[in-house]
Write the structure tokens for this entry.
Amino acid sequence: MIFQLNLAAIVAVAGQAVWKQAKPAIAKDVVILPILGFLGIILLWWVIALANHELMPTPPEALAANMDYILNPFYQRGPGNLGIGWLLLASLRRVLLGFLLGAVVAIPLGFLIGMSKSAMLAFNPIIQIFKPVSPLAWLPIALAIFNLADPSAIFVIFITSLWPTIINTALGVSSVSQDYLDVARVLEMPRWRRITKIILPASLPYIFTGLRISLGIAWLVIVAVEMLTGGIGIGFFVWDEWSRLNLSSVFLAVFVIGITGLLLDFAVGKIQELVTRRPTTSN
């Protein structure tokens, strides 16, 4: 008993010593260096603003000009006069709808391509032709089909979300070890069981990588789409404020867009950890 207590005390002391040594490194990597990088961007903005002060505000001026948006993000002061929180939610709704529709189509299609050589030969030319097309090139086609801005924006997000998820899913499925599949055939495992018990678990890291890339691209595209289609959204807010030469609000929108994109990627990463039970690394 005394030996066990002494051993526990030694382990506790050793753990405290290791933590004391690791704590400065963790604080430096997680807190200090990111803050320094962010301050460097603020300083660069400040220098450029001072050189072009008649048009561009300095960081304190932009902060003061945007206090109403920051303190009251969900105000409603008449038709079209909404707080930035409502605009952000409108954009998120379009992105998530288009992204989820794209995932519903892309994941099964990626499985088909990865499991069938004939499907790969049939679909690969289509993917290679349409993948490099700018998402905004689909907007006139979408407007011609739907004749409305909102479904057109969702359609563009849908098209944008397809390609990275299809490619990564197909890569993950085709990368499953042949030994596992041979064992499944020897055990006469049904095809659906092979997919759910062997292929799907092995492909999940690839699938989530494709989903994270697709969601990031979708969030990039929605800003440009809303600039062209108008209506309620963070993208149109950027264009509208620039038309008024109100760069303070543009800087606020840039910050909000960046933070939202970071949180979206973080959320998908956490879902990946829950599903795969493996820690993920930030892209």
Notes: Residues 1-15 have pLDDT under 50 and may be disordered.
